[in-house]
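Translate structure to sequence.
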């Protein structure tokens, strides 16, 4: 077999990595330098040149999308059939562990048909355990308990390993123990458990451990910087005998610190695998010069780095374009028309990606894409109107609008929990069926069949909806939505959830208020009321629009989901302080650096064209606010930037401290013209000018450096 083919189109350092002798090897290199490429070629090389049988190889990727892609690429390299590839173990940590547990359920102490709990299922189970333990949810929020349990599992700590503790601690541990027992009894396995089970299985079962250590002669890991403690221990256990581990990663792209990923794993690699070889790749093949240099400049502002230089011999290409939008609609229009032009010029839609920091941002883009009839797909996260919390909120609105909507009734009658159990609901359901009436009506009947407590709880729920409906009569749509979120308890319910997930849900709910505020209802005489129109619109949007995965469509995703991928054309949107970097990260240096890494990840997805957008005014999470451009923008040297439109917000704040008061919307005082408001801005540095509308009625462009404008 001709193995030279495998070394074609690899540079010197890449070849060294691909053809390295067995042992521990770490490829530490920046974005787009060919880490994933090296990893796939390594697998091909092992099979072709070293005659390693495919079933003896285990490769871990970060997402299912990535593992599908990797499988495809190796298949091509090896010119192997799908069948030949089947024996190759490539997958995510979760996927691989699931496969192992299915094969060894007995040894792992699980029933054959064990069930996997997703995060929502897990939440419900935790809640159930709390009830069984007679703990009040108000004091012991299930979301927090769930978070605590996962935290322990990800550090490989069982309830029995924890010290008895006192007071609060004692109760936390009791809940964890009860949760473990319940899962075991019901044959249920949550995500963290998948890994922990296999880890323990290997640790405690020598025979099986040795069997797999022998079987997986070679272990390869992509995106190594984002492994957490348990994942890393799991890998070490698996390689303990042969130490053949091939890891590739980039400290500058570590973006899951908030979920327990430990960059220390990368730093400790040489310590944990003595004699490990470390190879650095320094040539970037993905991006044109301006893009790469702009990204390098941004990440250069981080202090805690291992330090790498990344260069390219690709042409400089077009500059990084910067668009200063008026608001989020202007931003969406600009982006979508840019993509339309790209497609008209003969490019594929799926070579274009639209990236954002927060999933809630997708809504406005989705609407614009829908109205332009441009197929798109949202990855890693549901489309806005399909998200569970949005459906919850819409169900309340639906009941306000139409009490007889059974679907809405079922969804929220006991959500958030208000003591209406499954038995009560079954009674209501039967009653509704027997009498051919809606559940709402059935819930209002009192035939003595239900306990006084159950009947009372139903009564209270009906009252709540009636009250909300009465209030809605005198309010606009947005206020109705806001009021509903508060009174129903939905907002408070999701606010209890501490992690990023809970925050996202709260943000999405707030975004629904924005959607309501911006909803342009048809005000024809015979048009239905605003609320019904809004609901109809939401139902339509939830069902349509999204293209199938195989279709050629524009790719929408959060920056987190974009890791490892590449696109010719990239729009990075919402680059504003407070949004990106995220508000939560502003206070803490550590988190700010993680945001900057995320920015680096985003920028380095672009191969040919990168456009960065920010809006002067944005309505997000229900609030309208003026926003200062992201600090990351000012970290890019001017020479790589082309401003598509005079920035409408002062960037002087970042380039010239003396003029930091000159922001859009600011009141200023001029010696001659008197008081005024800054309404426009253009240019940078010493050429910066602002337009001020003066109280006297005049509007003037003034050069900041000379104008002597004082804050009013
Ligand atoms: P990331 O850090 O974003 O995951 P990476 O280091 O894994 O990036 P790859 O995705 O493997 O980088 O490679 C980036 C691009 O460069 C890919 O399109 C790849 O095919 C190409 N590439 C890598 N090495 C070479 C090479 N020696 N010759 C030509 N193209 C290359
Ligand atoms: Mg990669």
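Result:
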């Amino acid at each position: 077999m001709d193995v030279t083919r495998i070394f074609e189109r690899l540079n010197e350092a890449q070849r060294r990595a691909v053809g390295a002798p067995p042992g521990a090897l770490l490829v530490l290199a920046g974005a787009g330098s060919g880490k994933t490429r090296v990893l796939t070629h390594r697998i091909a090389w092992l099979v072709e040149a070293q005659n390693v049988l495919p079933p003896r190889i285990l490769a871990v990727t970060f997402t299912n999308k990535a593992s599908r892609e990797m499988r495809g690429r190796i298949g091509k390299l090896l010119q192997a059939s799908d069948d030949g590839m089947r024996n190759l173990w490539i997958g995510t940590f979760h996927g691989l562990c699931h496969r192992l547990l299915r094969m060894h359920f007995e040894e792992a102490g699980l029933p054959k048909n064990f069930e996997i709990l997703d995060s929502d299922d897990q939440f419900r189970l935790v809640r159930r355990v709390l009830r069984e333990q007679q703990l009040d949810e108000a004091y012991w929020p299930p979301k927090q308990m769930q978070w605590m349990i996962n935290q322990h599992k990800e550090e490989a700590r069982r309830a029995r390993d924890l010290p008895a503790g006192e007071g609060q601690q004692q109760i936390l541990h009791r809940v964890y123990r009860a949760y473990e027992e319940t899962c075991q009894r019901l044959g249920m396995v949550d995500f963290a458990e998948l890994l922990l089970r296999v880890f323990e299985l290997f640790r405690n079962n020598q025979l099986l451990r040795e069997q797999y250590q022998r079987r997986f002669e070679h272990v390869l890991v992509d995106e190594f910087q984002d492994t957490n403690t348990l994942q890393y221990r799991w890998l070490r256990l698996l390689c303990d005998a042969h130490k053949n581990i091939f890891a590739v990663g980039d400290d500058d792209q570590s973006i899951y610190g908030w979920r327990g990923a430990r960059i220390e794993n990368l730093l400790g690699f040489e310590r944990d695998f003595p004699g490990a070889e470390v190879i650095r790749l320094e040539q970037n093949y993905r991006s044109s010069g301006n893009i790469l240099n702009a990204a390098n400049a941004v990440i250069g502002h981080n202090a805690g780095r291992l330090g790498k230089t990344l260069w390219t011999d690709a042409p400089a290409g077009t500059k990084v374009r910067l668009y200063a939008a008026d608001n989020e609609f202007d931003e969406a229009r600009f982006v979508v028309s840019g993509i339309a032009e790209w497609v008209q010029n003969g490019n594929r839609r799926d070579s274009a990606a639209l990236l954002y920091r927060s999933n809630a941002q997708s809504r406005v883009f989705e609407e614009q894409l829908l109205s332009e009839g441009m197929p798109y797909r949202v990855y890693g996260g549901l489309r806005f109107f399909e998200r569970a919390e949005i459906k919850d909120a819409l169900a309340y609105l639906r009941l306000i609008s139409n009490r007889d909507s059974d679907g809405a009734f079922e969804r929220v009658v006991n959500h958030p929990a208000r003591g209406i159990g499954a038995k009560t609901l079954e009674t209501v359901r039967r009653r509704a069926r027997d009498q051919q009436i809606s559940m709402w009506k059935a819930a209002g009947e009192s035939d003595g069949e239900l306990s006084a407590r159950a009947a009372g709880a139903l009564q209270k729920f009906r009252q709540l909806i009636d009250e909300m409906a009465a209030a809605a009569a005198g309010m606009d749509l947005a206020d109705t939505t806001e009021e509903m979120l508060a009174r129903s308890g939905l907002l408070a319910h999701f606010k209890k959830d501490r992690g990023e997930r809970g925050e996202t849900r709260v943000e999405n709910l707030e975004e629904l208020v924005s959607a309501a505020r911006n909803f342009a209802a048809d005000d024809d005489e015979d048009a239905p009321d605003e609320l019904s129109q809004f609901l109809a619109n939401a139902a339509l949007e939830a069902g349509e629009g999204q293209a199938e995965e195989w279709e050629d469509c524009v790719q929408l995703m959060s920056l987190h989901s974009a890791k490892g991928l590449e696109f010719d054309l990239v729009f990075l949107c919402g680059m504003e302080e407070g949004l990106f970097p995220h508000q939560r990260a502003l206070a803490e240096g550590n988190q700010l650096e993680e945001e900057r890494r995320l920015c680096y990840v985003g920028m380095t997805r672009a191969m040919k064209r990168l456009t960065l957008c920010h809006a002067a005014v944005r309505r997000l999470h229900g609030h309208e606010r003026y926003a200062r451009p992201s600090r990351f923008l000012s970290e890019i040297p001017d020479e790589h930037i082309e401003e598509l439109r005079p920035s409408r917000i002062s960037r002087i704040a970042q380039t010239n401290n003396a003029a930091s008061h000159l922001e859009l919307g600011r009141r200023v005082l001029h010696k001659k013209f008197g008081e005024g408001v800054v309404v426009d801005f253009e240019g940078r540095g010493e050429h910066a000018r602002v337009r001020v509308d003066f109280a006297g009625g005049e509007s003037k462009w003034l050069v900041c450096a000379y104008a002597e404008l004082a804050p009013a």
